[in-house]
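Work Package 4 report. The design task specified in the project plan requires that, given a folded chain encoded as structure tokens, an amino acid be chosen for each position. We show below one input record used in the internal validation round.
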């Protein structure tokens, strides 16, 4: 649910940019900023769902929380409303470069693909399709953008999840427990992870995380392109 809300919010946030100015004409800097702002808005609005998803996925067997409702009630009763936003600060620190890189690199890859289409069409003496990218080309640009963003920002995602599962009493076979308030802040978490697990500890789960994030980014951008074209045809 969180991934759907996050992707939808990113798409809708970026759609506002395309009405003010053709988004392909935006500089890489503005693409980065608009993506970062859209990512922040999506994260703050849907963060409790991400927290619950991470806790339910990390608890293993026997289950500490059988349902999302039981996890929600326990967090509210033990940690208060603020407990639903545990780890929000490192998440925002992660999402600003992640969403920014995703949108910025997507626009860059898209420009490169458009230039390649122009060169190819000039070599074949064909005209009229210079700026039109196929669905497959849009998908590949989104796939590459999602992969780049995830590879750069994954260590921050690891730190975020450590904060989210603090105090979760899961079985040791599912990994070491993270005690409540085990880390003072994000920099403390980064240094402790490196000291205890080495630099490789910051990249735990990078393969499945990338396998999930890359196609999700591709689908998001294809939907973004078609949604922006459809809305622009209606409103103009």
């Amino acid at each position: 649910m969180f991934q759907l809300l996050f992707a939808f919010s990113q798409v809708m946030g970026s759609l506002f940019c395309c009405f003010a100015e053709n988004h392909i004409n935006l500089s890489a800097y503005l693409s980065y900023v608009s993506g970062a702002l859209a990512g922040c808005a999506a994260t703050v609005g849907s963060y409790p769902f991400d927290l619950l998803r991470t806790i339910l996925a990390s608890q293993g067997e026997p289950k500490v929380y059988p349902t999302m409702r039981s996890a929600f009630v326990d967090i509210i009763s033990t940690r208060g409303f603020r407990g639903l936003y545990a780890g929000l600060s490192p998440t925002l620190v992660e999402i600003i470069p992640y969403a920014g890189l995703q949108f910025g690199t997507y626009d860059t890859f898209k420009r490169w693909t458009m230039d390649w289409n122009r060169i190819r069409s000039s070599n074949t003496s064909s005209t009229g399709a210079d700026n039109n990218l196929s669905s497959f080309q849009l998908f590949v640009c989104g796939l590459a953008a999602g992969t780049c963003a995830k590879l750069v920002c994954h260590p921050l995602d690891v730190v975020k999840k450590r904060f989210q599962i603090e105090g979760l009493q899961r079985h040791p076979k599912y990994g070491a427990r993270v005690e409540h308030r085990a880390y003072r802040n994000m920099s403390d978490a980064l240094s402790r992870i490196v000291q205890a697990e080495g630099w490789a500890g910051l990249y735990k789960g990078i393969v499945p995380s990338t396998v999930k994030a890359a196609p999700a980014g591709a689908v998001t951008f294809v939907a973004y392109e078609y949604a922006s074209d459809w809305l622009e045809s209606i409103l103009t």
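The mean pLDDT is 78. Validation will be extended to a larger panel in the next phase.
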